[in-house]
């Protein structure tokens, strides 16, 4: 199938580049094997940008190639090397291109040289572990993943930017008129629907310069899909005025200037959006004798309708100057209304902060759905094959208040919680502040058990406090040193290895002290007996001690 040279409506699939992953790396050099995290950030993906180029007059390039993708960002590297950013791709479009969704929602109206619209934004690169390091997480063993680029389908629709639009039946002389008043050279022939694409011409009338566009001929029922003109009526939506070009020399039965005007107006009304445009009527082909008489007959009735009427001939150029200056007057009036002094102040409107950043909804199956830009973006950035990265995600969600709101809404442990919609949603079981197997979901280098006040530890603290009070004489009952440190077995009080070792050392010190006190007491007793003159059997005493 032949590809047309003029295309004014295309559907394009655009995809932004994916962001590069961050790098998890540890600096290492001689005499410094663990020099700290030095993983670089991933590069951002490129974006797909539409930009108005005045040299473009058609969308045919996107008819031939309807898929456009931007390059991806590269992954970060060690030694704080950030990944390179994917370059943006610029898609040139004609002036007057309207960007919309397949459902008809208008996204942008690109008018004026250089006007831009980001059709598909590139994904953000992931942070490396050097950027994730903090005072409480000095050596992260993970990095964030890069985000996927935006992917969407858009519709590009060209609406020619012209000041005057020419409408009328096929073979009414629109192409001949635009060729007579400008340097445009459209195709002209003596059969209907000669014009297959809109034509533009630049007209000079005194000090005024303006553009004129004609569209393929309209017929009755064009608004319902008959003929060609309905597909091109969008090209006169931006015009300051419409000129009805009426053929006064037609030999078709049932046609006359008044009925032709009524039919075209009905089709314009069915298209919609053109009711406020000023109208001019050009009664064409008055160089034919019968046509001149017909034009004189209907002029009065047309003027009674409030229309300005001009009898013209594109062959002899009769009446063309008067028509051009009438067009220029309307264009000048509209431009004067639009070109007002720009005294607008630039007002910066920063995005509000502190508002609700996520929503929690209960699903029909009894689970919970979390929606929000931040939680969904964090999920996309998380490498779930890394337990530490999963714990980091849990910390971020907890700080955001997700767990607190789930508890307030009645969520219990074991409920299914999903973050995001669609195939990329992540589903997990709700487990508020609990262990995952034998491992706690805490930040690297932290252990929640160190902050817990266990009953065994509390009892040991009470014993220590009581012992020191007895030592200082603040308790009436004397301290019983033999009880200190006894019964401190690991299975009973659930001591950590460090605490068990400290308790064992304290018990050994107590035993050595008791042994010294016993030896001193025996020595004193021996001296007393010797002073009293008692006979001491050394062998018997030794045997008694050994026994």
Structure at a glance:
This protein has 547 residues and is α/β, with parallel strands linked by helices. 30% of the residues lie in helices and 17% in strands.
Describe it.
Residues 4-161 form the Obg domain. With 547 residues, the protein is an alpha/beta fold. It has 3 domains: 9-158, Spo0b-associated Gtp-binding Protein, Chain: A (Distorted Sandwich), CATH 2.70.210.12; 164-339, P-loop containing nucleotide triphosphate hydrolases (Rossmann fold, 3-Layer(aba) Sandwich); 357-436, GTP-binding protein OBG, C-terminal domain (GMP Synthetase, Chain A, domain 3). The protein contains 13 helices and 18 strands. The chain is rod-shaped, with a radius of gyration of 45 Å. It is 30% helix and 17% strand. It has helices spanning 60-64, 129-132, 174-181, 257-271, 289-304, 320-338, 373-381, 387-400, 402-408, 455-471, 490-493, 497-531, 538-546, and strands at residues 9-15, 48-52, 67-69, 89-93, 97-100, 106-110, 116-120, 151-158, 164-167, 199-205, 208-214, 241-247, 279-284, 308-311, 359-362, 368-371, 416-419, 426-429.
């Amino acid at each position: 199938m032949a590809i047309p040279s003029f295309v004014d409506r295309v559907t394009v699939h655009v995809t932004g580049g994916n962001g590069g992953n961050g790098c998890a790396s540890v600096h290492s050099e001689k005499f410094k094997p663990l020099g700290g995290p030095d993983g670089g950030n991933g590069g951002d993906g490129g974006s797909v940008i539409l930009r108005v180029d005045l040299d473009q007059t058609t969308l045919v390039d996107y008819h031939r190639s309807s898929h456009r993708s931007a390059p991806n960002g590269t992954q970060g590297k060690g030694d704080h090397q950030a990944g390179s950013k994917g370059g943006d791709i610029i898609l040139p479009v004609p002036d007057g291109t309207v960007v919309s969704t397949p459902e008809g929602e208008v996204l942008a109206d690109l008018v004026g040289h250089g006007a831009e619209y980001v059709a598909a934004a590139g994904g953000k690169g992931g942070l490396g572990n050097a950027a994730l390091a903090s005072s409480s997480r000095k050596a992260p063993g993970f990095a964030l993943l890069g985000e996927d680029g935006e992917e969407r389908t858009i519709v590009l629709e060209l609406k020619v930017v012209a000041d005057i639009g020419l409408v009328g039946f096929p073979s009414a002389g629109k192409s001949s008129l635009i060729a007579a008043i400008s340097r445009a050279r459209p195709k002209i022939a003596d059969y209907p629907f000669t014009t297959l694409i809109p034509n533009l011409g630049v007209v000079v009338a005194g000090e005024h310069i303006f553009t004129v566009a004609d569209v393929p001929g309209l017929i009755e029922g064009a608004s319902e899909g008959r003929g060609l003109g309905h597909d091109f009526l969008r090209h006169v939506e931006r015009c300051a005025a419409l000129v009805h070009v009426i053929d006064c020399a037609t030999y078709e039965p049932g046609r006359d200037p008044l009925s032709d005007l009524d039919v075209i107006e009905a089709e314009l009304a069915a298209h919609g959006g053109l009711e406020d445009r000023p109208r001019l009527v050009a009664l064409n082909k008055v160089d034919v004798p019968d046509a001149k008489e017909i034009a004189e007959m209907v002029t009065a009735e047309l003027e009674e309708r409030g229309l300005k009427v001009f009898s013209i001939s594109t062959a002899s150029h009769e009446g063309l100057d008067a028509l051009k200056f009438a067009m220029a007057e309307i264009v000048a009036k509209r431009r004067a209304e639009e070109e007002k002094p720009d005294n607008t102040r630039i007002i910066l409107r920063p995005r509000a902060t502190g508002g609700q950043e996520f929503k929690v909804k209960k699903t029909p199956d009894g689970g919970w759905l979390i929606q929000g830009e931040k939680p969904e973006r964090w999920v996309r950035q998380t490498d779930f094959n890394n337990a530490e990265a999963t714990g980091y995600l849990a910390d971020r969600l907890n700080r955001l208040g997700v767990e607190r709101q789930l508890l307030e809404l009645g969520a219990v442990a074991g409920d299914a919680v999903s973050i995001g919609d669609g195939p990329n949603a992540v589903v997990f079981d709700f487990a508020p502040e609990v262990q995952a197997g034998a491992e706690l979901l805490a930040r690297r280098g932290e252990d929640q058990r160190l902050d817990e006040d266990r009953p065994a530890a509390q009892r040991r603290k009470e014993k220590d406090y009581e012992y020191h009070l007895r030592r200082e004489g603040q308790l009436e009952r004397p301290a019983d040193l033999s009880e200190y440190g006894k019964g401190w077995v690991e299975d009973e009080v659930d001591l950590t290895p460090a605490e068990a070792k400290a308790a064992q050392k304290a018990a050994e010190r107590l035993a050595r002290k008791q042994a010294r006190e016993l030896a001193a007491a025996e020595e004193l007793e021996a001296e007393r007996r010797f002073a009293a003159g008692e006979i001491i059997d050394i062998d018997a005493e030794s045997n008694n001690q050994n026994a």
